[in-house]
Amino acid sequence: MITKSLYQEVILDHNRKPRNYGKLDKASHHAVGHNPLCGDHLDIDLNLEGEHIEGIAFHGESCAICKASASMMTTVVKGKSLADAEMLIKEFRDMATGTLDLAHPHHLGRLTVFAGVRDLPTRVKCAILPWHTLHAALNSVSTTSTEAEGDPMHAPIGDA
Amino acid sequence: MKIIDSTLQPQIDSTLDVARVRADFPILKLQVEGKPLVYLDNAASSQMPQPVIDRLVRYQTSQHANINRGVHYLSETATAEYETSRRKLQHFINASEDREVIFTSGTTDSINLVMHGYGRKFIGAGDEIILTTLEHHSNIVPWQMLAEEKGARIRVVPINDAGELLIDEYEKLFNERTKFVGVMHVSNALGTINPVREMIAFAHARGVPVLVDGAQAAPHMKVDVQDLDCDFYAFSGHKMCGPTGIGILYGKAELLERMQPFKGGGDMILSVTFERTTYNSIPHKFEAGTPPIAAAIGLGAAVDYLSNVGIDAIAAYEVELLNYATEQMCQIPGVRIIGTAARKTAVLSFEVAGVHPHDVGTLLNQEGVAVRTGHHCVQPVMLRLKVPATTRASFAFYNTMAEVDTFIAGIRTVQKIFV
């Protein structure tokens, strides 16, 4: 039942037709995220102009949850300030790991379609990987992994 | 004793009564996501029948003490049961002596024992170790560690697109520097049954010892280490209806005696002073410290159980399951089976076009079907067959044809969701 609510139409649609899929001609920032547990990987290109995300694109090899998460992420953070992007990264991660109370005010909007992953421990990392990789790119870390020590994701996000 | 002419004996009924077998496995009554559990992850770990559970309970409630040291009743009982279990395992694999059967924590531990005990003593700089593309990481990494330490080299037997070893290439890898061969009996990811008997004969003709990783063979077919003539044979209890934390290393006595100990500690010694330690005889030389006594006795009960069901009946029934599942799967457009060797155990690795294995796995779980997804600890196989990951259904003798139908229907459901 939980699973069904996760594989809902909006996620399946973004998996079929991922938005902002590909590479940027001129990227100011770039990062590759790996999930060594399943071999999935995701490349994120960013174009930062001052304090704003001007352009973003992603490509890679991943499951539907990861691809849809990446696709929706790109549509949401495009045009956002770095601070807003970091806030969304933190909120998304907290939602996926079950530490965010969705009853309280938040900024996730339709990204809450991913709330169901909190009940699928083996799939949480699939949903988080794009956000994780975006965080690395924003902080000029070129590669990251869901398992790596010293990974920016393991450091507090949003407080820095 | 009455001697009966074997030709006059009635044919042993080799058919398997799956309903009766299933009644022995309490976990198979479980519901998952509101549906009956269909457990198809047996290559990762099998389930435990009631007689084995009961044996563990009986040991813990009336027979437990430390072994090999007490003169009291319980210690003598536990020691006797532990050694009885060793003999059961000896007969199960037809080893010629019980001292050739070493209790380890599992296949990985068994292979590491051979790497440390044999490899570090007899393999040196410039020597070559032959492994195959199909090997599980547990039969690659220890040898890489040894190669790095000693300056030895690893040579790899390639496979064809069906997932079968190229035996001509295997034979070409031998030269005067070849010192060891490690090969899995059955592939965990693809189910390929390798021609280990012939490979061993070829290696022996060149004086090279062979370790066989039997983790995926021992639960599914008759293993006869004397017939194979392997030097080492490693397998795990938890893949053959036994407990976790216990496994076996079979080794030829002559080799085990020449090897150095792997772990030092109590039980593996005859005498200790700060100047000198005299090691115990085999198998005790390789069983330092208090072993998992309950698990070892449980494994003895597990091989009793498998023998009672009949290992040949199990093998025959699992072939029927494999054939039926393969046939059903071939009828689904967009599904590709990875691993199509002529000789296979009941393992089906597959891809569903356009759907990532993790999504397949999560959605099958919704139907109560447990499968494994990912690289199955064989990244070189995935690389060679150019698949990032697969979904794997692995069957056991307690699975039914109706469960195959549920599984196949589950794949069709996945496809519908991802249209």
Q: Tell me the overall shape of chain B.
A: globular
* CATH architectural designation of the largest domain in chain B: 3-Layer(aba) Sandwich
Give the helix level of chain A as a range of percent. Answer: 25-40%
Please trace the helix and strand order of chain A, writing H or E for each element. HHEEEHHHE
The gyration radius over C-alpha positions of chain B equals 22 Å
Distance between the termini of chain B: 68 Å
- The chain-level structural class of chain B is alpha/beta
Q: Return the CATH architecture of chain A.
A: Alpha-Beta Complex
> Helix share of residues of chain B?
25-40%
Number of strands of chain B: 17
- Tally of helical segments of chain B: 14
Number of discrete domains of chain A: 1
Radius of gyration of chain A: 14 Å
Q: In percent, how much strand structure appears in the residues of chain A?
A: 15-25%
Strand content of chain B: 15-25%
- Give the oligomeric state: heterodimer
Q: Which protein chains make the most extensive interface, counting residues with beta carbons within 8 Å of the other chain's beta carbons?
A: A-B, 20 and 20 residues
Span of the ends, CA to CA of chain A: 38 Å
**What is the level 1 CATH name of chain A?**
Alpha Beta
Can you tell me the CATH class of the largest domain in chain B? Alpha Beta
Family (chain A): Belongs to the NifU family.
Organism (chain A): Nitrosospira multiformis
Protein name (chain A): Nitrogen fixation NifU-like protein
GO molecular function, one term (chain A): iron ion binding
